Amino acid sequence: MRAAGIPFHATAMPSLRDPDSRVSLITRALVLPVAVVESLIQIAKFRPNVCCTTGGLVSLPIVLAARTLRVPVYIWEGNAIPGRVNRLLAGWSQRVGATFDASLRALPRARTSLAGNPIRRSLLRWTRETGRQKLGLPTDATVVFVTGGSQGSAAINHAVSGALPRLLRRATVIHHTGDAHLAQIAAKRETLPAELRERYQIYGFLREEMGAALASADLVVGRASSSSIAEPLAFGVPLILVPFAASAEAHQTANARDVVEKNAAILLPESQLDADRLVAYVTGLLDDPARLARMGKAARAAGRPDAATAIANELRALGGCA
User: Fold this and answer.
1) Is 162 in the same domain as 32?
2) 3-class SS of residue 276
3) Which among 96, 163, 291, 301 has the fewest CB atoms less than 10 Å away?
4) pLDDT score recorded for residue 31
5) b (16+ CB within 10 A) / e for 71-98
6) What are 100-132's pLDDT values in tens digits?
7) What backbone torsions phi and psi does residue 222 show, to the nearest 5 degrees?
8) Which pTM value belongs to this model?
9) Are 90 and 15 in a shared domain?
């Protein structure tokens, strides 16, 4: 924030890493009054028109302070299953932005709109043509983009490694491994025959190339966080979703099911993920172009590339800045 020239103040309220720990709850409860006073001082000094939060325990003192000072609150919920604190904060908020239809069951419907997940504008500037040109991919290639998120996924990487020869005979694969896994995957790549190696691109971390990879892809294999789903959908790319098994309240599985119900994705539980199933899921879709096309159409319909603008407009209206 400071690097961007935006004034920033951190309250004393820490995040809650273990919601089921009584010790954590007690320590946070002791810090809450201090964090509320801090928030009251900062809000009184800054005099905002509106308070925008993505929720979580760290937001609790800020929302309490904002409501005390009669500052309207907008909360954005990124998951299909809102956490306990977010459900509480939603009741105190004037407006709520949701990402998944499923979350509407737990949020105040009269004050909630399906805004979507904000996506960086720099990602959306890429097209299929410019993305493939950037990555050096043939215009007529079938491209599968595999990503485990910014830090990568050992489970997904392991399945890909076992499936590589079979996948590469069917498609060009862009693999976002995570920096910690890059060396191991690079060593695996060197064992491939030359003709297959050329069809396998690996990246430890993707910055602006993320947009190029998404725009180039015919199919994405990835996790089921809010942004991991929103970004491919914004490009109209169908998904094979492998939810993180240890996500809180199984929210990634709920996110995935919401998109599966829209016919834009297939769910592959992490407990069932192996090389053979990955090959079967990927080739099953690539060998059924009619189904893949239907999923792509559903993905485009479900995507919300203008989510950031929609949220900004709601904030401006709520703060009387429109």
Assistant:
1) no
2) helix
3) 301
4) 83
5) bbbbbbbbbbbbbebbbebbeebbbbbb
6) 999 999 999 999 999 999 999 999 999 999 999
7) -165, -175
8) 0.91
9) yes
The verdict on 111 and 134 lying in the same domain is no
Looking at the structure, tell me whether residues 63 and 205 fall in a common domain.
no
Tokens for 195, please give them: 């003709």
Residue 218 CA to residue 143 CA, distance in Å, equals 5
How far apart, in whole angstroms, are the C-alpha atoms of residue 41 and residue 32?
14
Domain that holds residue 216: 123-302
Q: Are 282 and 221 in contact (CB under 8 A)?
A: yes
pLDDT at 228 over 60: yes
Distance CA 322, CA 317 (A): 5
Domain CATH for 266: 3.40.50.2000
Q: At what angle do helices 209-216 and 226-234 cross, to 10 degrees?
A: 60
Specify the number of domains making up the chain: 2
Query: What sections of 247-304 are H helices per DSSP?
Result: 251-261, 275-286, 289-302
Sheet with 265-267: strands ordered across:
200-203, 172-176, 143-147, 219-222, 239-241, 265-267
Give me the amino acid identity at 70.
Answer: R
The residue length of the chain stands at 322
